[in-house]
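Side project, low priority. Logging it here so it doesn't get lost.
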Amino acid sequence: MSEAPVGVFDSGVGGLSVLREIRARLPHEPLLYVADSGHVPYGEKTPEFIRERSQKIAEFLFEQGAKALVLACNTATAAAVADLRERYPQVPIVGMEPAVKPAAAATRSGVVGVLATTGTLKSAKFAALLDRFANDVRVVTQPCPGLVEQIEAGELATPRTRDLLRGWVEPLLAEGCDTLILGCTHYPFIRPLLRELVPESVSLVDTGAAVARHLQSLLDQHGLRAQGPAGSPRFWSSADPVQLQRVLPLLWGEALPAEALPGKSA
């Protein structure tokens, strides 16, 4: 069982930023990845729809032999992780949440900016995070409609992506934010562009590495750490797998095949 794969999914290709952190920390783990790009972005969908998608994808990954599940998506975590943990109490399941706690600890100005999808910012889970960890700081939120789609298309530094990002970041800087939370797993891919648009003194915070550490801890607790070799990850998409295959060299760093998500899971 320890040599079984870890299943990871996201609304699209954003979770590849988390997959990279998992591979860096746990290089012997076989990895499975589902991009639900046929339904991206989740931030504009209802919680009920996201729960249904998450359930179907989880079932698919378990059919492929997954020993653990990572929801590499803040919106899916907010909507579905509690339901999945109830359904599969024996399976290690790791979710995501925006990095409010480390950002609140890091800020010097006392003002933290959040770049996120509308769905994440509206969620009760995000409100609870603010309530728990942001009492002593001011949090300024900024929804980023359209940014996920730009990253899905591999447009990480095009003029349109730059213009969108500048329009969202400048008001946050004007408010005095010295720490920006990348509140969507897609957003680490535009970190180089963000670094061009904000001063060096502004910290950029995401939670991919923390998710990898938590996964490692759960695998150790359950005696499920693999010893390798891991082989290449397998990738599926609920949209055209050719599009996923096209962006893998850019976002994963290696050209690999991608498959269509089959049947009822798609």
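Brief comment: Residues 33 and 213 are 18 Å apart (CA to CA).
Revisit when time allows.
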